[in-house]
Amino acid sequence: MSSNFDTYRLYYYTAPQYYWGALVDLMNKGTWAGRLMFIREGFPIPANAPLGGVPVLNYPMNRFEDIMSILRYEKPLYVILNEANGIGHIATSDEPVGELEPAAA
Predict the structure, then answer these.
(1) What is the pTM of this model?
(2) Is residue 35 part of a domain?
(3) Range of 43's domain?
């Protein structure tokens, strides 16, 4: 399962009863395209799985800055989940070497 996305919404939690510290909803033209969950230290990382027909990928909280950097600076972006083995990732399209993304207007 694969979907491109063009916007995201970040939720950065402080609730101790939740096992996640941050949640990022991915959207494509206003439609939910996926979710990235960042699991707090000391909690097991759940398996990646679809929810409502879209990929939900789980990362340890220490990957948050890396992923946010990708979301801020790269485009186009895709969220991908192989349901057969649970491997998921976010990806770019082919990128020229040394390309800098244009500054946001």
Answers:
(1) 0.88
(2) yes
(3) 2-92
Are 66 and 89 in contact, with CB atoms under 8 Å apart?
no
The phi, psi pair for 6, rounded to 5°, reads: -120, -10
Cite the DSSP H helix spans in the chain.
Answer: 64-73
Give a yes or no: residue 103 inside a domain: no
36 in any annotated domain: yes
φ, ψ of residue 66 to 5 degrees: the values are: -60, -50
N-to-C CA span, the chain: 32
Number of domains forming the structure of the chain = 1
- 67 falls within a domain: yes
* 65 within 8 A of 43, measured Cβ to Cβ: no
pLDDT per residue as tens digits for the range 62-105: 999 999 999 999 999 999 999 999 999 999 987 767 766 665 54
- CB distance 81 to 48 below 8 Å: yes
The rounded distance, in Å, linking the Cα atoms of 81 and 50 is 8
